[in-house]
Write a structure and sequence with these properties.
single chain; 74% helix; mainly alpha; 28 helices; 718 residues; transmembrane helix
């Protein structure tokens, strides 16, 4: 055994100790990072004790492991020699001039103690053992046993032992987990995150049912209070009615008694409201008192005539405003709704049905509730105050013979409702009730036109149209889009109603189509789809009117068997002309607004409308010249030739545009089909000759010219 054997044994023992410490570190790491289970503390303590016992056994391992290490391959011995040489150099640096054997023994003892004490916390020792490679550039002292190993001090960078990873039975680290020594130096590993789970959708809580509301504490007292108020109010109404029928008391005591009862109820409510526990009853009593006062004013105006209509409306406005202001001060929506609802329900009983005076009193309630609705977001109050006047206006239709009264009441209801809606939407842009009132308020006025005279009805619808369209034009930039769209739609509908009422006969279609044409240009200039929708609606109605009356298909297909007035022919010519212009302007605006795409079906319909309009213009013009068979035949000849010319224009313009080229070819086919199917059967004599020769020459010229243009374009392209 040479002097190098102790060093080899020491290196092998240190490598064995490193592997043991690495196994202990892995075990500790698995214990520390394991998912918490139901293991007891004793089990964990037993695992730690087993790990410490394994470390102690590794420290006291027998030295007989050295022969096994000496039998390893060259790289293993080389790594051990390098480790021994570096440790010997370190020993010579600290202890002075000693022999190699004494230094090796001293290093063996010191390294054993140091490895036992610092093994678990040695920086990245296991990592070096697993990944370090031997350095082939440095000489191996084990290859020259006869030469002593000179000391090579290097105090700056000591060379630690680098065991070969190809040793027998190495401890392989888990590739999915970091090294145990790395955890010993850098602390415990980060906790493993649970897999991502979708955020649970919280179900929306459902509102309480009717049974739950009735079973709540205090619900019984509220119900009793409001039912008592309703019964009291109904009793007052019955008293006023029965007093008239049975002669109880005089007219003046009845009115004074109702006023005293209402004032007493209001005073009691004011006193009850001072107590926190009595406020529920105070709301019901106050609503009953103000309703009694309002109905007393209605009875004094409509039944007993103690007050003129204007004075009664003013007094009712004061009473309703006082009650609603008190409701706003007490911040009770139920109080406000109770006042308005009770007055609206009971007022028709005192006015003996639905009359213009009833509508006026209901509008007074609407006027009184509008400022409250602006201050408080109470949609129920807006509906309760806004719907009764509209229903009463509709039910009043046919109950009066004075058109001025009926028109005035309907117009007043529309103005009040729209004004309240505008004020509300400025304060709360997202209020849906404002949109409903703006759209619904003018409807009773438009329904009133059914029973009015022609000019009264047209004037009323015209005023509504002007009001709504002006509101749309002014508020298009400031008001919400949905609100202005609804207002504009009502205005367009009112304009159509006014036009349909004031005009008669064939001129009605021309005016409606002209309005559609104006709306199309307006949509193009304003870049707004609202006028475009109105243009489409007006155009559809105008086309139906044109086909039914102004330019019917029989005028184009049948020879005239009776004379048509010149006025009707002029109206038909103008109607067909406007229809053709609309058929061109409407898709132009739609394409500009990115509404109409490239689908062929709409374009086919537009093309057919244009052909129908062109035929109507030509036939009406020809019949104006002569309403005989000659005029009819001559007109159809011109129609055939004009279709052919239009096809030629489309083909020339469509050399580079496929859609125009296809349209031109389709129109050529339509012209040829008309020539063979209609002209050949309907035309006679020289007209048939003119139609065939003219169409043939145009087609021949078109084909020749078109072929030349295509060839020239190809040559220039090449």
């Amino acid at each position: 055994m040479t002097g190098q054997d102790p060093l080899i044994r020491l290196a092998d023992e240190l490598g064995h100790l490193g592997r043991r410490l690495e196994a202990v570190g892995l075990e500790l790491r698995n214990v520390g990072t394991a998912v918490p289970t139901k293991d007891s503390a004793a089990t964990v303590a037993a695992r730690v004790a087993a790990a410490r016992s394994a470390a102690a056994q590794a420290e006291t391992a027998p030295a007989e492991a050295a022969p096994h290490a000496s039998e390893q391959t060259g790289p293993t011995a080389q790594g051990a020699s390098q480790q021994s040489a570096s440790q010997q150099s370190a020993g010579q640096q600290g202890a002075g001039q000693q022999s190699a054997s004494q230094q090796g023994a001293t290093q063996q003892k010191g390294a054993g103690q140091q490895g036992a004490q610092r093994g678990p916390s040695t920086p990245a020792y296991g990592q070096q053992a697993a990944f370090a490679q031997p350095n082939p550039a440095r000489p191996n002292p084990a290859q020259h046993p006869a030469q002593p190993n000179p000391a090579q001090p290097n105090p700056a960078q000591p060379n630690p032992a680098q065991p070969n990873p190809t040793q027998a039975n190495p401890v392989r680290p888990n590739p999915a987990q970091p090294d145990a020594a790395w955890h010993g130096w850098h602390g415990p590993p980060p906790p493993q995150q649970a897999p991502w789970a979708a955020h649970p959708v919280t179900p929306q809580p459902q509102g309480p049912s009717l049974f739950d509301r009735l079973s709540q504490p205090g619900a019984g007292s509220k119900l009793l209070a409001w039912v008592g108020g309703a019964v009291t109010l109904l009793g007052v109404v019955l008293l006023l009615i029965l007093a008239v029928q049975r002669g109880y008391l005089g007219p003046l005591p009845r009115v004074v008694g109702g006023a005293v009862l209402g004032a007493a109820l209001v005073g009691i409510a004011l006193r009850l409201h001072r107590s926190e526990t009595s406020r529920t009853g105070a709301f019901a009593v106050a609503a009953t008192g103000f309703a009694v006062l309002y109905l007393d004013v209605v009875a004094a105006t409509s039944i007993y005539s103690y007050l003129p209509e204007g004075g009664g409306l003013a007094a009712g406005l004061v009473v309703a405003a006082a009650g609603l202001l008190l409701a706003m001060r007490w911040d009770s929506a139920a109080f406000a709704i109770g006042v308005v609802g009770a007055c609206a329900v009971c007022a028709p009983i005192l006015t003996e049905g639905f009359t213009p005076l009833l509508v006026a009193f209901l509008l007074v309630l609407k006027l009184a509730a509008s400022p409250i609705h602006l201050k408080r977001d109470w949609p129920s109050l807006a509906v309760t105050a806004g719907v009764p006047p509209l229903l009463a206006t509709i039910l009043t239709i046919g109950r009066t013979d004075d058109p001025r009264v009926l028109s005035g009441v309907a117009l007043l209801a529309a103005v009040v409702g729209v004004a309240a809606a505008v004020l509300t939407v400025r304060v709360r842009p997202g209020d849906v009730t404002a949109l409903g009132l703006a759209v619904g308020s003018p409807m009773p006025a438009l329904l009133t036109t059914v029973v009015l005279d022609k000019y009264w009805a047209a004037g009323l619808a015209g005023v509504i149209a002007v009001m709504m369209l002006a509101l749309w034009a002014v508020g298009r930039r400031d008001l919400p889009t949905a609100f202005t769209a609804g207002v504009g739609g009502v205005g367009v509908f009112a304009l159509f109603v006014s036009t349909a009422i004031v005009l008669e006969g064939s001129t009605r279609a021309a005016i409606v189509l002209a309005e559609a044409l104006v709306l199309a240009f307006l949509a193009r200039q304003l870049r707004s789809r609202g006028p475009l929708i109105g243009s489409v609606v007006f155009g559809a109605f105008g086309f139906v009117m044109t086909v039914e009356d102004a330019v019917p298909p029989r005028l184009l297909l049948q020879q005239p068997w009776r004379l048509v007035s010149d006025g009707a022919l002029v109206a038909g010519l103008l109607t067909a002309l406007v229809l053709g212009l609309l058929a061109i302007a409407l898709p132009w605006a739609a394409v500009r607004l990115d509404v109409l795409g490239r689908h062929p079906l709409p374009w086919i319909g537009i093309g057919l409308v244009v052909l129908y309009a062109a035929a109507g213009v030509v036939l009406c013009g020809a019949l104006l010249v002569s309403q005989s068979v000659t005029g009819f035949v001559f007109g159809h000849s011109i129609v055939t030739v004009s279709w052919t010319v239009a096809a030629l224009v489309l083909l020339v313009r469509g050399i580079d545009v496929r859609s125009l080229r296809v349209a031109g070819l389709v129109l050529v086919g339509a012209a040829v089909a008309k020539l063979l199917l209609f002209d050949l059967a309907r035309l006679d004599g020289i007209a048939r000759v003119i139609a065939f020769i003219g169409a043939g020459l145009v087609l021949l010229t078109a084909g020749t010219r078109y072929a030349k243009l295509v060839a020239t374009r190809r040559i220039s392209a090449n």
